[in-house]
Amino acid sequence: MKNNLSKKAEKIAPSLTLEISAMAAELKSKGINVIGFGVGEPDFETPKNIKDAAIEAINNGITRYTPTAGIVELREAICEKFEKDNELKYDLDNIVVSSGAKQSLSNAFMAILNPGDEVIIPNPYWVSYPEAIKLADGKPVLLETKEENGFKYSFEDLRDAINDKTKAIVLNSPSNPTGIIYDREDLEKIAELAVEKNIFIISDEIYEKLIYDGEHISIASINEDIKDLTITVNGVSKAYAMTGWRIGYTASNKKIAKLMSTIQGHTTSNANSIAQYASIEAIKGDQSEVDKMREEFKKRKDFMVNRINEIDNLSCLEPRGAFYIMLNISKLFGKKLFGVEINSSIDFTKVILEKGNVAVVPGIAFGNDNFVRLSYANSLENIAEGLNRIEKVLIEGR
Question: What is the pTM of this model?
């Protein structure tokens, strides 16, 4: 029939993270106090110097279209940031500014994929990776990572997963949802393999500034060969508490950058002009608020890890970056809580929300049903109360 809807669109899964947030919001609307460990965004205000830069841009009438790839001043600031922070030299033509890092990723997949091309992603994965790949006519290949291996790619498994259809490997360091970081030795092995097989690397580095153990290394900085094959994705959302401002960016070789700019020119065109000028201040201005946020996140992370590992039948690894913890609930499987047999992360999530008024994200949203994800982008007081409620559900629900 002519009115059949897009088969490709119908195959795309909705975001479970947003669904859980909607369920929590419904309970809150009824006056119920819900502790939310769901959607990952900093709970801090955007720093004042950044907001002031946006106000100045508005007052100066900077509210019109900009070049699709972003204003020159912002791309210059991004180039300076890459050289200073990552030892990477780029020209303006290597940089594309987009409406959030999610659009940057979508642009990247659309620029490199042809129908049937495969993209390897780690499992657990950020929820939008497989769907963005499908929308670009690619095929996501989920490569299981193990908790005992720190949720990192096994190099041997990665090599075995590559075939003639493999077009790219997704790296996310620091990772959402696991908080893992790839060290230089890890990256050198992956870079060598990608160059040998002539495979692109999509390196999602949006949590770069939120590292508590070790240092951030961009895989593109390993050597010029891997730099040419890497599309580095970053943005201002997480580091500067600017999630709603919607500014992401990519650095890649100029041919890919041109394709991404062309694609964007026929979808959203330029990113928000005011947010672009605010992002210059974010990247080039005073970084002290970032340091304060990172220190506060570290305190919360330390508390959450210690508290979780005190609760019977729950455990977690200590994350090294971002602001998430993958809570292992597998010891609860087969047990009943308030008469509900727990056999999946969704079972656990629903019981915890309904009986404890705590919102978490089921691990199946990230590809692994043995876990749920908790965000510590919340106050220490709320984190302590939320974990107390979870423990109470486990004790009283038996």
Answer: 0.95
